[in-house]
Amino acid sequence: MKAVVFDTFGDPETVLEVRDVPSPAPGPGEVRVRMLASPINPSDLLMVRGQYGKRPPLPATPGFEGVGVVEEGSGLLAWRVKGKRVAVLNSGTGNWQEQVVLPARQAVPIPATMSDEQAATFFVNPASALAMTRYILRVPPGAWLLQTAAASALGRMVIRLGQLYGFRTLNVVRRREQAEELTRLGGTAVVATNEENLIERVQALTEGAGVPYAIDSVGGTTGTQALQSLGRGGRLLLYGTLAGEPIQIDPRVLLVGQKKVEGFWLSEWVRDQGVLTMLGLFNRIGKLMQGGTLSTEIGATFSLDDVNAAVRQAAQPGHRGKVLLRIGIFSK
User: Fold this and answer.
1) What is the CATH number of domain 2-121+296-326?
2) Model-level pTM?
3) Could you read off the pLDDT of 205-253 as tens digits, one per residue?
4) What are phi and psi of 306, to 5 degrees?
5) Does the pLDDT of residue 275 top 90, yes or no?
6) Where are the domains of the chain?
7) How many C-beta neighbours within 10 Å does residue 209 have?
């Protein structure tokens, strides 16, 4: 079968290769999935560069999420999904290949009405947006939530979650054209940092109180300003490092007002959740995706053989829509 493989960490466009590799066979409690599609997420590119939180043993195949059809497996959980189309949650063997073997519990049945394109993006962004806003921060109606990188796919989901659950979003972007687009999408307020001072804008919007909640995937200067924008008792969740630079923490900023800075990594959070919580999360994601709140805008689609062009497109700043790898024949 074909698989995307890299032997060394580096620029994805340079180090990724498509190779013929042996087809995998499932062991006890595992399933073999014929892959249909997998998105190219920022976390995938970070992993290939060696900048992700954990480095896989080499050689490795990228792809944390995707959609496929279960063709083989053993055990009760495998029997439950055999022959079904599933979201493939894969932090081990990688989804950018024609067939994948993984634990049956990581193959999540998806509604027949959901397209392959949406099913391929079922987990990473929707689960992160929902977990941070509804399970961890529990942002109440009327409260401000500041988010950096607000023009990202996840950022757009947070805006729609705010509209659904009644909390206000203060959306931080770099350029004015992004700000105008997010305002049309329904963001309560948008700050373009190439024209405005974030801290001053927050003070004006909140009448000097600061925001009670913030999520940051950038780090560096932007993340530092998000921290400085917190009000009394405010909480900042850090879930990414797009700038490749640390935030600067002045202890006095935290001490005055009893503020908190916390880390969020989806796979770590999932590991601590019970089965019922995860089943409820999957069900909730499915409904919110079908309702449009957690849907993903799909951009360019590439074949597995064109993976180098695909990762080049995914790495372009400001590209529209999630880039997908088409691995098998789409069912919908």
Assistant:
1) 3.90.180.10
2) 0.89
3) 999 999 999 999 999 999 999 999 999 999 999 998 888 889 999 898 8
4) -100, 30
5) no
6) 2-121+296-326, 128-267
7) 13
